[in-house]
Design a protein that fits this description.
The structure is a homodimer. By secondary structure, chain A is of the alpha/beta class. The first copy, chain A, has helices at 147-156, 176-179, 198-215, 232-243, 261-264, 270-273, 283-287, 297-306, 323-333; strands spanning 2-6, 13-17, 20-23, 25-26, 31-35, 42-50, 53-55, 61-65, 68-75, 92-100, 105-113, 127-131, 164-167, 225-230, 250-254, 276-282, 311-316. The first copy, chain A, has 2 domains: 2-76, Immunoglobulins (Immunoglobulin-like, Sandwich); 81-336, Rossmann fold, CATH 3.40.50.1820. Chain A is built from 9 helices and 17 strands. In chain A, the strands form 3 sheets. Chain A has an 8-stranded mixed beta sheet with strand order 10-11-13-12-14-15-16-17, with helices on both faces. In chain A, strands 2, 3, 6, 7, 8 and 9 form a 6-stranded antiparallel beta sheet that branches. The first copy, chain A, has a 3-stranded antiparallel beta sheet with strand order 1-5-4, with no helix packed on it. In chain A, strand 8 and strand 9 (68-75) form a beta hairpin. At the A-B interface, strand 6, strand 7, strand 9 and strand 10 of A face strand 6, strand 7, strand 9 and strand 10 of B.
Chain lengths: 340, 340
């Protein structure tokens, strides 16, 4: 990507993208100019360094990632049509404030309602609970992810059913007692530590789902409820769906591990009731074996298939642990939902 | 306000707020620290200067103002309770994409639906069209303005009726032919030049209002339609409502001029049909006579009153041309709406 910024008094200015810093060159008007190596297609976070200060690019749009609002860049992609804003019927992305009893505070989530939701007040819809990654928040899937445009386009083409998508905040402080670690220390033993998802699980089951079922025209049963997430959100999806096969019937794990036979051997009713386990990765993650915890995702998923569970394994070509992998994953996953 | 940023290699770092730059001091760890003079209560845009580069503060939230996303700070206010997030029933802020025929493109607006909107599918609501200022966009009123929390709280206290609020983008390139100026030149004659609001007027009347009436349960008549705006949005409100007294019945102009007797002398049906003209300013704007165009706003408004038109003139104490004036203006204006 190309970048430029006026900083006539600066000694050193760098572009920082995909974990590499590129020196910019100052022109005779004090404008620093430069570019990075070619980037993967799709969305990337980046920042500038000006004399040792890490700052956003004032010329960019801002996205929540790395636990703060920062710059993002969209690299044109050969397949960008599937997440483009087009002149098709559009759903709405609704910002919702609700009171969480289990946390005793106000929380925010975003809810995608499909095109036509407000037209027929008798119609009810299935729901996908869709989670962001670590350091991101409830804005990620509609901003970086363009989940609303992906769904609008799939629905317009007749490739996916109209569904409600709930995007809440899964960021959770590690429970000290569960992890056994002192504050600031990494806990010993397998990662993630047992209990790490308890807080969000409780919020999902006791607050989010009942609030959504009370306020939207949902089909409020296991058959019509899906959960998916990317990275940390995929790990949360695994824990929550394996522990609650009576709540969710479709499971999507994007760059966030997989489900093994061992995971579900004690999960009563899982095999009978869960309709699909979808697992995906960017191709570069698999090449570099950056596949997270819990064993080889492809092998795990094949074993589930051999055991009679419906699975779908997807590899996003030429992408790494990044939003283009997850946009494509949603685009592959959504058409498979609620077909049974 | 206090600010700090790590920039060990920088020569000069400044905080830039309310049109004043304050030098920061570097500590022995390379962190630049400093503070501004005390600021008015409420919301302020600000930025940092690092060796000549104007950048957002990486530790802040971002807001759209000055035609770009930049940092904002909230100075605690004695009256902040009226725009606080409280545990009351909340409306929703919905992000809407719609196709504009008059512009032949996709546009975005935000729509506040009041608490309970989805509960009773038979109930219809009045609508306030609420516009941002110059250099801002359709995100301003729900982010900087906290219009949704102001309304949630007023409705919870029984002080305002539940209404729909539509927040669209009024930014418009000056029409060259209308202004008579060459690109880049200021047009001669009175400001704003005739015709400057034609583009947004057409979009409001031909696209936005019909789209809202088609997609929401509105009371779709003049009696139940209001328009208000701040600064540039107030000037647009004046032009659009004076030209269309058959469309809007309540008018709010916040720090954006006023309506004079001369403005409406040819506007047939205005006096009979328009229910309220609300005009407001921050007290510091009046002290400094920064009241925009078209004569003294208080005198103008008193003359309207003398002519038998219902008016309300409000002064926000100890604030200037800034969001705290406009939050308070909405808080004063909303309870007066749709009482007849």
């Amino acid at each position: 990507m190309h970048v430029q910024i006026s900083a006539p008094g600066a000694n050193k200015v760098q572009l920082d993208i995909s974990a590499v810093k590129y020196d910019l060159i100052k022109d005779d008007k004090g404008v620093w100019i430069g570019e990075s190596a070619p980037q993967d297609e799709g969305f990337h976070y980046y920042q500038l360094w000006i004399d040792g200060a890490a700052v956003p690019d004032p010329g960019s749009l801002y996205y929540y990632g790395a636990s703060r609002w920062g710059s993002g860049i969209e690299i044109p992609a050969k397949d960008q049509d599937f997440y483009a804003l087009k002149n098709v019927p559009h759903g709405q992305v609704r910002e919702l404030i609700y009171f969480s009893k289990s946390n005793n505070n106000n929380r925010r989530c975003f809810v995608y309602t499909p095109p036509g939701y407000d037209k027929d007040s008798q119609k009810h819809f299935p729901v996908l609970y869709l989670q962001h990654g670590g350091g991101e928040d409830e804005t990620g899937w509609s901003r970086q992810g363009r989940a609303n445009f992906i769904m609008d386009n799939l629905i317009a083409e007749g490739k996916a059913k109209p569904i409600i998508i709930v995007m809440d905040n899964g960021t959770w402080r590690m429970p000290d007692r569960a992890s056994g670690a002192k504050p600031g220390e990494c806990p010993a033993g397998p990662w993630p530590p047992k209990g790490w998802a308890d807080g969000f699980t409780k919020t999902m089951l006791e607050d989010i789902i009942p609030m959504i079922d009370a306020n939207y025209r949902t089909l409020a049963d296991q058959k019509h409820r899906a959960m998916a997430g990317l990275s940390m959100g995929g790990m949360q999806t695994r824990v929550i769906t394996v522990d609650n096969p009576d709540v969710f019937s479709y499971v999507g794990i994007f760059s966030g591990g997989s489900i093994s036979i061992e995971d579900i051997k004690d999960a009563r009713g899982f095999k009978e009731n869960v309709k699909l386990i979808f697992v995906s990765y960017g191709s570069r993650e698999l090449e570099n074996r950056r596949t997270g915890f819990g064993g080889d995702p492809k092998e795990n998923t094949e074993k589930l298939k051999d055991a009679g569970i419906k699975t779908h394994f997807y590899i996003s070509p030429q992408t790494a642990h990044e939003w283009q992998s997850w946009r494509r994953s949603l685009h592959e996953f959504a058409p498979l939902l609620f077909k049974d």
